[in-house]
Structures are given as structure tokens and as C-alpha cells.
Amino acid sequence: MKAHNADKTCWNCPAAIFKGNVDFRACGQSKDALKKFKEDKQVMIECERRPELGHFDPSITFEECPEWQLTEYGYLLKNMRVMILGIDGYLGWSLALKLGSLGCEVSGVDNFFRRNCVEEKGSHSIVPIASMDERLQAAKEVLNIDIKFREIDILDRESLGGFMKEVKPEAIVHYGECPSAPYSMVDCDHAIKVQYNNVIGTLGLLFLMKDFVPESSLIKLGTLGEYGTPLTGRALFEGIFPSDAVITWGDREWSLGGELTPRDPVSFYHVSKVQDTFNVYEACKYWWLRSYDVMQGVIYGVYTEQVAADKRLRTRLDIDEWFGTVVNRLVAQAVLGTPLTVYGEGEQIRGFIALEDAMECMVRLISSPPEPGQYDVVNQVSGLHKVSELAEAIAGVANGEFGRSIKIQRLEDPRVEADIHPFEVVSQKLPNQFGFRPKVSLEKEITRMLELLTQPEIEERIRKVSHTIMPRTWWSGEHKETEVLEIYDPGTKILEGYQPKLITGEPEKQVLIKVKAKIPAPSRETE
Amino acid sequence: MEIMDKNFEKEVLKADIPVLVDFWASWCPPCKMVEPVVDKLEREYVGKVKIGKLNVDRNPVIASRYQIKGVPTFIIFREGKIMKREVGAKSERQLRQMIDTALEDASVENK
């Protein structure tokens, strides 16, 4: 079978520098721009990696080009220069090692925002992590990977720009954002801190890319939470309406194809991600930057081949109410033997993906860059689960293989959210355009996590910060404990809400989706 | 089919049946999303209407000749002349309507 990106061409390649007779401004911008085309000239490129070829037609495929080499994740640009913003984080560090092990030249920046915020909560990564110096040294010793690191705050555009000019990244992965909804809801200062870092940091990055590396692709991390949970049950498309979605009003009809789908963020953090989406979308439109906006499901787990290779290479794992995502938090509770906490009815449905699978998705996206100006959205998820079902699954593994006797407790929901709602997610692009197939089941990763987290040293570290797990940050602005509504044994709870639906099939198999405006049509057109 | 600067004359202007050209660009989300519909109609109208796609950035000569200023632009050509031109994403029903109307007009003219 052909690799997913075998037929991509120079048009997708960050090494292709356009030379003459191509101007993406020509269309949709100005009539005058059209005049400068020379009818007798063809579009030509020069290869930044092989300038000796001179100018040529940009039609060489990845399969044909010797600079692109076949890997298990498709063709990958030889020694591809990838810069990771937020390289010290849970995902940034895991991805750095994975890319390095595939032969990429990895560079990265971090200002240790995450380490500091978790410390602010009075918590720590329960998996002990080495200092950046030790990490870099271990990467070299154990995996023979050289990572170029700079301590830079992405808001410091001068330093970041200087580093970008030096490295000339061919792809940039943007993990340099504060990823916590509760942290953004603590108070005004925290909300501003999150939005300023995320929105202004990303906006500055877009300008730097325009100025220094316009051929590079931006892999921007968003979240499925940008879409919210529409109570109508409308499918959550991949950011952009498909062509067969139409809006009807009275007897008239318009295609919604290509328009951004509605966003309904669920915290000030999620709002920052939505703002990012619009900023990235616009930058692609104005400056022909290229970007994949990745709507990530909640990531859980501890394992990739590289982080497991040495204690000093492990990635962080947080369990506090601000930065501990639900599976990671519940597994830690299972280790402690305390009841697993779900909020409200516990029938909130979310998308999830294991760390190892998420990293594979990232590699596949990096290896198949968008075309100039292309903004695309992918929903990155391998399964949809109700929170209470996650608790059941974790309790199941803990009470089985690990001999615990864990219960589940329902707490008051400190968030403003629907705790029973329909949820249908479309995730067709990663499987069908990027060749991704999830490899890690929920149970498998829970088992790996329990194996690691029950080690005495780590169990002790969980115990030390166990007081940070329970939620105290309310969306109302209050800071107080949450009341326990019910404690029950796994397997005894009847769930009454909706069944989640994940659509991953070929796009053609989809049925017509009609969106009907609620407003009544006027009887006649008015000016 | 892919229509380019170099095959435009043969495939479009000198075609013996009407041709619908979808002028598109990689940076245009509506163009990308409408692609499956265009592909579907291409298969369906075989023999009656030729349907092709032309990337405006890769084929600037034709794009500038026809003053394509917004994408997607759909143009139906017949015997080298423009029969119909519409801009913006279309639903499947609207595209069908555009093609069918052009076919009807063509058959009226022929009578």
C-alpha cells in the first residue's frame, strides 16, 4: 500500500522556494496583481536543499524525491528541522524524543511556565522529571539525539525570532500554551495570564513565521473543547463544514462548505484557543502560511518508546485539579485507593487519545505539510467516552489486575457545563488522509499507567500532593470544596444519557447534512 | 480531471461537449470542501458534460486570462465560449442546477 503522503509534491514541501510567476495574492485580492503574470512563463521553484537543480516545475512527488525518505509513518523529509514551542511539557518533550529518534533535527523553546504553574498549586509532576540540562544530556546518551534548546518565553518575540532565523525550522509545533481550563477560571489575573500568553503568543508567532519562515508549516494545537457540546446533537465536523452541509432559509439554500463551523468554548482557556483558530485561519489567508489546527481530544497516559527508555527521559504527569487531565487524575486516585471523582451526573462525553497515539498523529501531520495558504483542521481522537465510564474502566483494571477495591464518587460539578448531552464527533482526516490507526486501547494504557504509578517512589509522590486533586476552582468564581453527592461501587450505576458517536469512515459515505436556520424566512426580500 | 495551462485549449476550448471548470486554490477552504461534490458530478455527467478542476496558483496563465478574482469560480464553457459563471461554494443541488440549465440552454440553441 502506498504511503499516505507519497503523492504530495513540491507544493507541499517546505524546501520548495517559489521563483517567479506565482503570487498567491493574485486571487481574491486585487485586479492589478493579475496583470503582472507573464503568459509565456511557467511557475518555477528552487529547492532549498538542492539548489544545484536550478529552477524547475514543482511536480516532484515525495515518493520520487530523494530528500523524502520512507518511514513507518509515511515519507519524512530527511533531517527535517522541527521546532517545538513548549518542549519541556507533557507533550512537547514526548514529541521531541519521538521526532529525534526518526532523524529529525529537533529544536525547542520553553520558559518553564508549566513547572511554575503546577508549583503555584502546591503540586508537582508525580512522575519525577529531570531538569532540562539533564534531559538533553540523557537524550544524547541514551537515544543519540541532539536537541537544540533555548529558554525563551514565546511572548519575547525578539529572542524567538532570533532563534527561528538561526534554526530555519521546516515545521513548527505549537505546544507553547497554557492548557488548563480551571487555571483560566481561578480569577481575573489567571484568566488574563492564560489569554495573554495563548492569544498574543500565537499572534506574535504568526508574524514571525511570515517574516522568517513562510514555507514552514504550523502544527497548532487546539482542543475539541473549542466546539463545545451542542445540545442539538449536531455532529462536530473537523472545524470546517463539508460541502454537503447546506443552510436553508425559506425556499433558499446556500452551501456552508468551507466555512468555519460554530465554536462554543467552555472556559476562558477554551476561548483563547478559539481566538487562536481565527488568528491562524486569517494568517493563512493573508500571508499564505500553512497550518493544521489540531482539535485534540484529552490526552492520557505515560508511555512512548522513547520516554520509557530511561528514567531521565520520562515526561511529566500532573494530577492536580488545574493541570491533571481526567484519566491521569483518576488513575492517581486509584493508586491512592480513594474513590474516583466524577463531576455532576458524570455523563459528560469527551474525546480521548493515548499519548503514544497522539504522538504518532503529530508525526503524520508534520510529514504531510499543507499547501501554501492551506488552513485545515483535524479532530485528533481515538475514542469517545463518558467520564463515568472512564472511572469504571480505571476501577475495573485497578480492582482486577492490581487488587484494589476502588469506588466511584459523584461530586457537585464546579464547572458550567452540560453533564448529560449528545456527542457526535467526525474524525475522518487522520485515518483517511494521514493513514493513522489507533494502536493503544484505553485498558492497555491504564494498565501501563498503573504499573508505573504504583512504583513506591511515585506512589509516595502522589500521596504528597493528593490534596491538590479535589476541585476547588468553581466557574462561578468561588473557591470552595465540592460536596460529595454519591459514592457507588463500579458496575452498579445505570447511565441514562446519550451514546457517543465517532465517525471515521470515508467522506463519501456520509449522508446529506442539513442545517436549518431557526429564524423565520421573511415573506419577501427586503433591501 | 485536472485542467492546466498547457491542456486548457484542447480539453476545454476545443471540447465537443460543454465543460465545467472549477477554478480552485489550496488556500481556499470552500474549494477543498466542494471537491468531493465536483468529483461525484464528474463521474455522473460523463459523456454529457466534462468536469475538471484548475488550480489558479499552479496555472496562472489561464487564471489571469479569465480574471479569476475569487475562488471557487465555476465556469461552464461551450464551443470555447463562456455560458455561465458563478463564484463561491455551491451545494450539490446548486451545481446540478447550474449544469442542467446550461445543458437545456444548449439544446434549445441547437434546435
Question: Which structural class should the secondary elements of chain B be placed in?
Answer: alpha+beta
CATH fold-level topology of chain B: Glutaredoxin
The CATH C-level name of the largest domain in chain A is Alpha Beta
* Rg of chain A, Cα atoms, Å: 24 Å
- Please summarize the sheet with the most strands of chain A: 7 strands, parallel
Sequence stretches where pLDDT stays below 50 over 5 or more residues of chain B: none
Q: Could you report the average pLDDT of chain B, rounded to the nearest whole number?
A: 91
In terms of quaternary structure, the protein is: heterodimer
Question: Can you list the strand order of the major beta sheet of chain B?
Answer: 2-1-3-4
Note the overall shape of chain B: globular
Do you know the CATH architecture of the largest domain in chain A? 3-Layer(aba) Sandwich
The helix-and-strand class of chain A reads: alpha/beta
* Proportion of residues in extended strands of chain B: 15-25%
The SSE string of chain B, one letter per element, is: HEHEHEEH
Strand order of the largest sheet of chain A: 8-7-6-9-10-13-17
Helix content of chain B: 40-55%
Q: What amount of the residues of chain A lies in strands?
A: 15-25%
| CA distance, first residue to last residue of chain B | 30 Å
Describe the structure.
- The complex is a heterodimer of chains A (527) and B (111).
- With 527 residues, chain A is an alpha/beta fold.
- Chain A has 2 domains: 1-72, no CATH class; 79-516, NAD(P)-binding Rossmann-like Domain (Rossmann fold).
- Chain A has helices at 31-35, 90-101, 113-120, 132-143, 157-167, 181-184, 188-212, 268-287, 326-336, 355-366, 387-399, 429-433, 442-453, 456-464, and strands at residues 16-19, 44-47, 55-56, 68-71, 74-77, 81-85, 105-110, 148-151, 171-174, 217-223, 245-249, 252-255, 290-296, 298-300, 340-343, 349-354, 375-380, 383-386, 408-411, 424-426, 484-488, 501-503, 513-516.
- In chain A, the strands form 7 sheets. Chain A has a 7-stranded parallel beta sheet, sandwiched between helices. A 3-stranded antiparallel beta sheet of chain A has the order 1-2-3, with no helix packed on it.
- In chain A, strand 4 (68-71) and strand 5 (74-77) form a beta hairpin.
- In chain A, helix 9 packs across helix 13.
- Chain A is globular, with a radius of gyration of 24 Å.
- Chain B is of the alpha+beta class.
- Chain B has one domain: Glutaredoxin (3-Layer(aba) Sandwich), CATH 3.40.30.
- Chain B contains 4 helices and 4 strands.
- The longest helix of chain B has 19 residues, at 92-110.
- Chain B is globular and about 40 Å long.
- The model of chain B has no long low-confidence stretch (mean pLDDT 91).
- Chains A and B meet through helix 1 and strand 12 of A and helix 2, helix 3 and helix 4 of B.
